[in-house]
Amino acid sequence: MMRARMLASTLAVTVAFGSMAAAPQKDGGKPSLYQRLGSYDVIAAVVNEFGRRWEIDPQLKPFIVGFSADSGKRQTQTFIEFLCEQSGGPCAYTGRDMKTAHAGMTITEPQWKAFMEQLAASFDAIKVQPREKAEALEIFTKLKPQIGIQ
User: Fold this and answer.
1) Does residue 94 lie within any of the structural domains?
2) In this predicted model, which residue has the larger pLDDT, 121 or 149?
3) I need a labelling partner for 111 at 20 to 30 A (CA). Which of 15, 25, 141, 150 fits?
């Protein structure tokens, strides 16, 4: 139950972060970031690992308070779809734009840093190669101005 709530919160934040990101990478003939990451299964594994980390991080945990298990599952799936789409995969992100999703959340700089650190650690835990990890993290870094960090 708590894991599902955590994943819901994680996805909510990620969905909020994601809708305004750079367009998916499609560079004629070269493998997309999606392909180089290892496709859907690796993205899902990273997101699930991130959800586990989110639940125990004191900077991030407050964002999952009050989420139902069902909401958590939806957030997780939305996060996966976002990263899949933004990395050049076949998924369609259906979440809200970042500004709308984060309105009123008053996300602080320390919370942003915790988000990025836990996301990076999740890529490491799944053994994503450094180049692909950096490219995936850049998708989220570009969203920072849109989410209104305090």
Assistant:
1) yes
2) 121
3) 25
Cα-based distances in Å from 145 to 38, 45, 90, 129: 29, 27, 27, 27
CA-to-CA separations, 49 to 37, 114, 144, in angstroms, rounded:
15, 15, 22
Terminal CA-CA length for the chain: 31
Encode pLDDT of 14-68 as tens digits.
444 443 344 444 556 899 999 999 999 999 999 999 999 999 999 998 888 888 8
- For the full predicted model, state whether its pTM sits above 0.70: yes
**Residue 24 included in any domain:** no
> Which CATH number characterizes residue 81's domain?
1.10.490.10
Cα angle: 82, vertex 84, 88; to 5 degrees: 115
